[in-house]
Backbone:
């Protein structure tokens, strides 16, 4: 439904979630398959807008892959739109639909931040990599010292993996980055991107991953394995939360709508705390979950002392992967730390036109404090 003066009128045909009419002068949002069911970004950004005194609101935009092109085309004609954050599964597709990309985003081939200019052009950037680096080594974020000369294990072969690999490859060019993904061809593409940026990278196959993990100095999960909530696929809906990214995951799918359809507020039809797998999925998937957990915990026990772990998943705050890392004594950071750093960076870019010359000298610190408090209060 749209009403006169509704700022979201042009975008509603492309959204699968329901949002109330908005009359805010300016707004921004996160676009993904279903961010309304899990994203912390609205609470963080709205807290920062309030702290800065800006007349803006931040919203979750659930957009299916089939509707993404139309959604972005509509964004060009919405004057109040400051920009967007981009999450799974749209980071790579968005990159080819924008008017201009930063050099880093061109190299990575994925975008997590879109800035809308006053004339309606859409500019893409990627802040994921620097945020991962700060999570690993920044003292202000509780980062940990990276010891030893072992390789960096990068789990995943999508846009987030490319971004993390490029930044870490440049920062630690003396370390080999071993990329492991379900699709070897895509993993090879990620290694080539890292190499073009000046890093040293190779593919870790399923056969070589076990030995590589035992020698790793850093492990970064850039896959959605462990993420809460339903994920739409071509065959139905899957849940990845029961699995650890440290071991092979074989999620079973259920037909969309078979106990998996979400209400407008992102909850499951049975009023619970959030979307949950239907019972038939649990019965079918349990043997796969048990195998995954056994391999993950065995691998975590074999990691050397001091191996640092970062999981880009931030909902839930502690994935099965991070739980196993914690149980076995390894320093671990969750995706909330990464989310905070990239969100602060993105906010300063998107709000620059509103802040203008009257921006507080410590605007970035104000934003970081407000966002961090919103995360703690979730």
Residues:
């Amino acid at each position: 439904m749209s009403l006169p003066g509704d700022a979201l009128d042009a975008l509603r045909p492309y959204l699968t979630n329901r949002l109330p009419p908005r009359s805010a002068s300016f707004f921004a949002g996160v676009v993904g398959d279903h961010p309304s069911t899990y994203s912390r970004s609205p609470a963080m950004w709205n807290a920062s807008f309030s702290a800065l005194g800006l007349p803006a609101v931040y919203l979750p935009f659930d957009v299916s892959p089939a509707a993404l092109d139309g959604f972005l085309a509509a964004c060009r004609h919405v004057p109040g739109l400051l920009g967007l954050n981009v999450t799974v599964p749209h980071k790579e597709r968005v990159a080819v639909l924008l008017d201009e990309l930063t050099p880093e985003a061109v190299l990575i081939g994925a975008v997590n931040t879109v800035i809308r200019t006053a004339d309606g052009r859409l500019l893409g950037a990627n802040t994921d990599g620097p945020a991962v680096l700060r999570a690993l080594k920044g003292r202000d974020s509780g980062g940990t010292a990276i010891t030893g000369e072992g390789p960096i294990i990068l789990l995943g072969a999508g846009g987030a993996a490319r971004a993390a690999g490029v930044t870490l490859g440049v920062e630690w060019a003396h370390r080999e980055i071993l990329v492991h993904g379900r699709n070897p061809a895509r993993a090879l593409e990620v290694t080539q991107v890292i190499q073009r940026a000046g890093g040293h990278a190779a593919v870790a196959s399923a056969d070589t991953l076990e030995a590589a993990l035992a020698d790793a100095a850093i492990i970064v999960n850039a896959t959605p394995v462990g993420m809460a909530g339903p994920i739409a696929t071509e065959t139905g809906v899957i849940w990845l939360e029961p699995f650890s990214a440290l071991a092979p995951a074989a999620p079973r799918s259920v037909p969309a709508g078979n106990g998996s359809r979400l209400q407008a507020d992102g909850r499951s039809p049975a009023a619970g705390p959030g979307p949950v797998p239907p019972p038939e999925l649990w019965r079918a998937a349990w043997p796969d979950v048990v195998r995954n957990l056994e391999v993950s915990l065995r691998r975590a026990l074999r990691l050397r002392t001091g191996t640092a772990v970062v999981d880009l998943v931030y909902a839930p705050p502690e994935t099965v992967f991070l739980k196993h890392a914690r149980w076995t004594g390894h320093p671990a950071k969750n995706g909330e730390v990464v989310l905070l750093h990239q969100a602060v960076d993105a906010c300063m870019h998107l709000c620059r036109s509103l802040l203008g010359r009257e921006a507080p000298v410590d605007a970035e610190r104000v934003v970081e404090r407000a966002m961090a408090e919103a995360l703690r209060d979730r």
